[in-house]
Amino acid sequence: MTKKEKVEFLREKLCELYGDAPCTLEYKDPFHLIVAAQLAAQCTDARVNLVTPALFARFPDAEAFAGADTLELEKLIHSTGFYHNKAKNLKKCGQVLLSDFGGVVPDNIDDLLKLPGVGRKIANLVVGDVFGKPAIVVDTHCKRITGLLGLTKNTDPTKIEKDLVKIIPPEYSALFCHQIVEHGRNLCIARRPKCAECPLAPACDFAVKESKKTKKERA
Q1: Residue 114 resides in a domain
Q2: Per-residue pLDDT tens for 150-174?
Q3: Residue 219 pLDDT > 70
Q4: Are residues 81 and 34 in the same domain?
Q5: φ and ψ of 80, to 5 deg
Q6: 154 and 204 fall within a common domain
Q7: Catalytic: which of 91, 129, 139, 143?
Q8: pLDDT tens-digit map of 118-153
Q9: What's residue 182's pLDDT?
Q10: CA–CA dist 44, 208 (Å, integer)
Q11: Residue in 13, 121, 129, 143 annotated catalytic
Q12: Is 121 one of the catalytic residues?
């Protein structure tokens, strides 16, 4: 099975399992997604979704974040962890967005990367989910699971992204990443993947190796 044939199989199974899996961060506009995604670093999406309603009620847009009192901002996002650095980046992000982009979130990776606190993962998330463009979001689930599946041998997120761009159909790329996140939460769980229950197993290098090892041990 070639990698592209593998992707066709995976697409069919992932769509059966998770359908139109959405982004689990709650947001109402592009800037809110940037804020929520920054808060999600080393924090669960569920926790971020508990924090953002009060945060956005107090600081509703880039202009509000740009002029925010840092201590007040830190207090509102404290429970997401790393709140000193996150508050600093969010305030600077609002300032740069206003000064360089007129307060409008750009629709391309290069410009998004100019915003403080925005790396390729967040930039791709915004480009894919908000603007509907091809995008590969290499988060911890994507990095781990695509390696297990045998879609990439790289461990660097940028190199993984380049590998996946070559084999994932552009129109499917953003959805693929959301489906992989769901798969990581439901079946391909870190340190205890449920390979015996996994519909992706026939196309997964790790699952195939585990199956062969089990058969050999039983022989």
Answers
A1: no
A2: 999 999 999 999 999 999 999 999 9
A3: no
A4: yes
A5: -85, -5
A6: yes
A7: 139
A8: 999 999 999 999 999 999 999 999 999 999 999 999
A9: 97
A10: 31
A11: 121
A12: yes
Domain identity same for 45 and 93: yes
Statement: residue 217 has pLDDT above 80: no
Compute the Cα dihedral for 17, 19, 46, 171 and give only its sign.
positive
**Total domains, the chain:** 2
Compute the radius of gyration of the chain from its Cα atoms: 19
Which domain CATH number covers 147?
1.10.1670.10
CATH number of domain containing 85: 1.10.340.30
Residue 110 inside a domain? The answer is no
**Single-letter amino acid code for the residue at 82:** F
3-state secondary structure the chain: CCHHHHHHHHHHHHHHHHCCCCCCCCCCCHHHHHHHHHHCCCCCHHHHHHHHHHHHHHCCCHHHHHCCCHHHHHHHHHHHCCHHHHHHHHHHHHHHHHHHHCCCCCCCHHHHCCCCCCCHHHHHHHHHHCCCCCCCCCCHHHHHHHHHHCCCCCCCHHHHHHHHHHHCCHHHHHHHHHHHHHHHHHCCCCCCCCHHHCCCHHHCHHHHHHHHHHHHHHC
Q: Which domain holds residue 9?
A: 3-21+137-212
pTM, full prediction: 0.93
d(C-alpha 179, C-alpha 185), whole Å: 10
145 close to 179: Cβ distance less than 8 angstroms:
no
